[in-house]
Design brief:
mainly alpha; 12 helices; 56% helix
């Protein structure tokens, strides 16, 4: 994706036990009612059909996300628009902690949200919800060219656009939505002409999907190639992750120490 492990610390969350300990302390600052009001959590509970059988860990994962952010004193967090409630929950936890313990140990983060609404929350290939592994409606960076082609050709378009000559709708049509997101400025005129042609009739779904495939392949092809190169030496990949995790654990450990000092829990220091 272009992230340089020498500049960006890439780590495995489960290898940083300090995050779990921070989460435990933060849970005392958040009420059950507040967690249940989180719009993102409410939506995902409905999607997964938990009903009354919501796993506790699922309900409190916004608290764990707050630990992920605050452990590294992140001031800016790039996320999709659907994550705004998570950032706000983190900010509340930071304010509550700093106020309760009369300190300024934790940093209140700001979210960085995409300017283009569609770029912040890609709908799935089926037009439902967001693209997600659990709903099996996504394109993955590991997909080979053939898998990408099959997925694009199966995308949801306009169900009423049965014949090529029929006028079609571009609203809710995933092909045009993805063209808007992944098209570059130099593609804008061609995309606009395709939209107009599709709406008046005479442009088939297969042709629009083939064009989208070209646009996506242009973006995903180089990423796929780099991934294949890295995958040739998995030992080096794990080495990179281990180094990143060690570095992350050091930083999270320092924050945890400051948090425990503020709470009066550092008995032996």
């Amino acid at each position: 994706m272009g992230l340089d492990p020498n500049k960006a610390t890439i780590f495995i969350q489960s290898q940083i036990p300090e995050l779990a300990e921070l989460s435990m302390y933060y849970m005392n600052l958040v009420s059950l009612a507040r967690l249940e009001r989180n719009p993102t959590v409410k939506t995902e509970i409905a999607q997964k059909g938990f009903g009354e059988s919501i796993p506790t860990g699922f309900l409190v994962y916004p608290v764990a996300q707050a630990a992920d952010i605050t452990a590294f004193k992140a001031n800016l967090v790039p996320v999709g628009n659907d994550q705004k409630p998570m950032i706000e929950q983190t900010r509340e936890i930071v304010r509550s902690f700093n106020h309760a313990y009369n300190c300024d140990v934790l940093v209140q983060p700001e979210g960085i949200y995409p300017e283009h609404e569609g770029a912040g929350r890609l709908p799935g290939l089926d037009g439902n919800a967001k693209m997600s592994k659990s709903l099996n409606n996504g394109i993955y960076l590991a997909d080979d060219a053939d898998t990408l082609r099959k997925k694009v050709m199966s995308m949801y378009t306009d169900p009423d656009h049965i014949r090529v000559e029929d006028p079609g709708k571009i609203e809710g049509n995933m092909v045009f939505h993805y063209l808007d997101v992944f098209g570059r400025p130099e593609d804008a005129q061609e995309i606009a002409e395709m939209k107009e042609h599709y709406q008046r009739g005479g442009l088939g779904d297969v042709k629009t999907k083939r064009y989208l495939l070209e646009i996506l392949e242009r973006e995903l092809g180089p990423i796929r190639e780099r991934r294949i190169e890295y995958a040739k030496d998995m030992g080096e990949v794990y080495n990179m992750l281990q180094k990143g995790s060690e570095k992350a654990r050091e930083v999270a450990g320092q924050t945890l120490s400051e948090v425990k000092s503020a709470m009066g829990l550092n008995y032996f220091h």
